[in-house]
């Protein structure tokens, strides 16, 4: 049975009551759980003795014209999935619990958060870093697991943990995909049938870049063009970006060297924005 904790005091009391020496794994989510999220829970379970998850649709990371109000919130189904996975506790706070009236302190990473999604979603990663730091302070986990699908988010959190000397191990879990290659996302439920049919081209574009790289093409611009050409096969896909970047700093590169590269894409299908990536 997963214990549901709705306020900070209950969470702190539960954390304090854990037996000494138990390794605590943490999976923070925004809910609408799917197999990708459950793979994070499984990864946490492999490396810890007890697993806690959180569900919080964080308003700070949504822009004024984004999908905060319609973001799916199937709480009962989510709790069932966590219980079946053996998660010990779920932190399920309200917005008022997380952000008391007058809250005016934020966390801002100023390098890896700037390109890619940082350009098109100003303030997004400030919201991510702020809520994750608050959750780390409340849960005090030994490790936390995030999905590689959100590669830039992972980079921001890893940089924050390093820069602020947080005693948390960050683990990245691999992307989980549908049979046709589409990366699992809670937002996939928004896709109209015709958009869903075109969406696998995003992963196909990434795989085309990987194939070109393995065939000897290392020019970042030409590799990106390979991926964009695949996306152009459907007029339903409107790219926000398709970039080949340094895998650590996410800075622009001209050629893919010995450190490899992150190939990252964001694209819109109708009103839905999807992201995906691949590491060379």
TrEMBL record:
Keywords: ATP-binding, Cytoplasm, Ligase, Nucleotide-binding, Pantothenate biosynthesis. Its EC number is 6.3.2.1. It catalyses: (R)-pantoate + beta-alanine + ATP = (R)-pantothenate + AMP + diphosphate + H(+). The keyword Nucleotide-binding applies. The active site is at 37 (proton donor). The reaction proceeds by a bi uni uni bi ping pong mechanism. ATP binds at residues 30-37, 147-150, 176, 184-187. It holds the Pfam family Pantoate_ligase. Pathway: Cofactor biosynthesis; (R)-pantothenate biosynthesis; (R)-pantothenate from (R)-pantoate and beta-alanine: step 1/1. This is Pantothenate synthetase. It is found in: Cytoplasm. Beta-alanine binds at residue 61. GO terms for molecular function: pantoate-beta-alanine ligase activity. Belongs to the pantothenate synthetase family. Catalyzes the condensation of pantoate with beta-alanine in an ATP-dependent reaction via a pantoyl-adenylate intermediate. Homodimer. The keyword Cytoplasm applies. It comes from the Bacteria. Gene3D superfamilies: HUPs, Pantoate-beta-alanine ligase, C-terminal domain. InterPro entries: Cyt_trans-like, Pantoate_ligase, Pantoate_ligase_C, Rossmann-like_a/b/a_fold. (R)-pantoate binds at residues 61, 153. It comes from Devosia honganensis. The lineage of its organism: Bacteria, Pseudomonadati, Pseudomonadota, Alphaproteobacteria, Hyphomicrobiales.
